[in-house]
Design goal:
The complex is a heterodimer of chains A (306) and B (269).
Chain A: E1 12-16, E2 21-25, H1 36-42, E3 51-53, E4 60-62, H2 63-68, H3 84-91, E5 98-100, H4 115-126, E6 132-139, E7 142-149, H5 160-176, E8 180-186, H6 195-206, H7 208-214, E9 218-226, H8 228-231, E10 240-243, H9 254-261, H10 272-277, E11 283-284, H11 287-300
Chain B: H1 4-12, H2 20-27, E1 29-34, E2 46-53, E3 56-63, H3 69-74, H4 82-97, E4 102-108, H5 115-119, H6 122-133, E5 140-149, H7 150-154, E6 161-165, E7 169-171, H8 175-183, H9 189-195, H10 200-205, E8 211-213, H11 227-245, H12 248-260
Parallel strand pairs in B: 3-4, 4-5, 5-6, 5-7, 6-8
Antiparallel strand pairs in B: 1-2, 2-3
Helix pairs in contact in B: 1-9, 2-11, 4-6, 8-9
The chains are: A alpha/beta (306), B alpha/beta (269).
Chain lengths: 306, 269
């Protein structure tokens, strides 16, 4: 947990410049030139800052450049995490996305104190109702159902609402005989909803049998970071599985694994390149090439000229 | 002062708590154990094979924590690697071919969180089992006998009928983990246990399991001369014929409907 916490980099970080090396204290992973008050106002919201600090190369990247470059660092190619809305914007053909299930929310099965308030706060900040956005769209002219998770909403964790929205997206695909394209980013099953969250793993996996029966394509794009109960359910069940570079993809959290095995972990452990090498991913795709690849794959599943 | 949920957690983890092999030895005749996933290895954390239940051939798959310290280590304390889940899926598919019902015995703190498990795709192995069990064309009956922890337990618990022993527990993760993640304090595990609604009665009230099998007052023990096993045998004898009588398509529809409805009572639009 805590992998989306931007404030975790409170330690000093070593920054290399062309001719000298300096240590600068970093309070926030996102370095920006806003005033303190402004930062408070936008904390947790989607960064529209003038500069952002790249977690890959530690350089400050001009915000507009970053947006123009699909949130990929203009210096080192690091793929920044993307909120669901922006992901849809760069994936779906302009104006084609029609959302469904946007009013669907879950409950508080364990009566977890403060849970509803936390969700309300996140709804206000993110403009989303839950950690997944579902809709119909075209990608490169190919109609499909698109489900996109959002890591800024409760770490993209899956409770009853996320499970239900994903399930309905698959059902919509079956009903309309469309492929389902899913972008995953998730901390796993949502702790606050207890066993109800765990059961969503069964539900979201089982609904994919309906896609099988209908002979429909289920395509997954794994993005940073996809972990836990989502990895152990619909994220790993794609007919075709793509991943963005350098994305964390795993089941147990890295710290849990470290504590379990008490040894140094392999290089790139749980990074998409590692998972690819182990045979669980079809292709690692650069973000700027993703739409073209998706378009080609969708086209290949549209029946051809036969 | 221990609360009753924490007491259940402790009873479920007792050293002398009956494990899968106790139930297998006392319930099934002519049990023959089978090994290996045909892909990588045999995982001793999951024990599977074929035996007779009251004269009916069945496939039995259980998480096995082991009896003494040596065996517990050998069996990785019942925490399976991907090959364990892949072995269980292999045996389930075999059961499907020979039209044998499947009986799953759940007892794990969770799937193993180690390097090899990640390298060999523990997430994929669990996910695949969840999907395939939802459409397995033979009856599946699950019994949680001790700890039902996380996705590792769920991967043997997608079934037509599921029961928990009275002092077993079923949760999204062990209470220590819950307390650590949400309250940053693993020592608050007893409070977490109470909070998480993980006891058999609570899970049954939530509709996530169907039945609770009563235990003796002091909890089930593996030296009870098979008394606890007889209770479980009685339960299977009640449920299994009903499942076997139901036409398989009808059974699958019912199974799917149950899975599809998980959590629906909390959905608002």
């Amino acid at each position: 947990m805590g992998i989306f916490d931007r404030n975790k980099h409170s330690q000093k970080r070593r920054v290399y410049t062309s001719n000298q090396q300096i240590d600068i204290p970093i309070k926030n992973a996102l370095v920006n030139v806003h005033t303190y008050q402004q930062r408070q106002d936008t904390a947790g919201a989607i960064p529209d800052k003038m500069f952002e600090k790249c977690p890959g190369c530690a350089r400050a990247v001009f915000g507009e450049d970053l947006t123009d470059n699909l949130h990929v660092c203009t210096y080192c190619g690091h793929h920044f995490r993307m909120p669901a809305r922006e992901r849809i914007e760069i994936t779906a053909d302009p104006g084609s996305f029609e959302e469904f299930g946007e009013t669907l929310v879950g409950g508080n099965p364990l009566e977890y104190p403060g849970y509803e308030e936390k969700l309300d706060g996140l709804r206000e900040k993110t403009g989303l109702t839950e950690a997944i956005v579902t809709g119909e769209c075209t990608i490169g002219g190919n109609p499909c159902v698109l489900a996109v998770m959002d890591g800024y909403f409760m770490m993209g964790s899956m409770g009853a609402a996320v499970g239900e929205k994903f399930t309905r997206a698959a059902e919509r695909a079956v009903e309309k005989k469309l492929p389902l394209v899913t972008f995953t980013v998730s901390g796993g099953a949502r702790m606050q909803e207890g066993l109800v969250s765990l059961m969503q793993m069964a539900k979201t996996s089982a609904v994919l049998t309906k896609m099988d029966e209908a002979g429909l394509l289920y395509l997954v794009v794994l993005t940073d970071a996809t972990t836990g109960g989502v990895t152990a359910s619909f994220a790993m069940l794609g007919d075709i599985t793509l991943a963005e570079p350098d994305a964390i993809v795993g089941f147990a959290g890295k710290r849990v694994v470290e504590q379990t095995v008490k040894q140094a972990l392999p290089e790139h452990f749980q990074k998409s390149e590692f998972v690819y090498q182990k045979g669980f991913i079809d292709r690692i795709v650069q973000r700027k090439e993703l739409k073209d690849i998706l378009t080609s794959i969708l086209k290949l599943h549209a029946g051809g000229d036969a | 002062m221990a609360n009753s949920a924490w007491l259940s957690v402790q009873l479920a983890r007792e050293f002398i708590r009956p494990t899968a092999q106790y139930f297998i030895n006392n319930i099934f005749d002519d049990f023959v154990e089978m090994h290996g996933d045909r892909l990588f290895a045999d995982d001793a954390a999951i024990l599977g094979g074929i035996g007779f239940f009251n004269g009916i051939p069945v496939t039995v798959i259980g998480q096995e924590k082991g009896l003494d310290v040596n065996e517990k280590v050998k069996r990785n304390f019942g925490s399976a690697h991907p090959e364990g889940y892949r072995k269980s899926l292999r045996l389930m598919r075999q059961a499907e071919k020979f039209k044998r019902p499947v009986i799953c015995i759940v007892d794990t703190q969770g799937a193993y969180g180690g390097v090899g498990a990640e390298e060999r795709g523990i997430g994929e192995a669990i996910a695949r089992n969840l999907l395939e069990m939802s459409r397995l064309r033979v009856p599946v009956l699950s019994i949680i006998i001790g700890e039902g922890g996380s996705g590792g337990a769920l991967a043997l618990a997608v079934s037509d009928r599921i029961a928990m022993l009275e002092n077993s527990v079923y949760s999204i993760l062990p209470p220590e983990g819950f307390a650590n993640i949400l309250w940053r304090d693993p020592s608050k595990a007893p409070e977490a246990a109470q909070f998480m609604r993980m006891t058999a009665r609570e899970v049954c009230d939530m509709g996530i399991v169907d039945d609770v099998i009563p235990e003796p007052k002091e909890g089930a023990k593996n030296d009870d001369g098979g008394m606890m096993a007889m209770e479980v045998k009685k339960y299977i004898a009640q449920q299994l014929p009903k499942l076997m009588e139901t036409p398989i398509d009808k059974l699958l529809k019912k199974r799917y409907k149950k899975i599809r409805a998980f959590g629906n009572e909390y959905i608002q639009e």
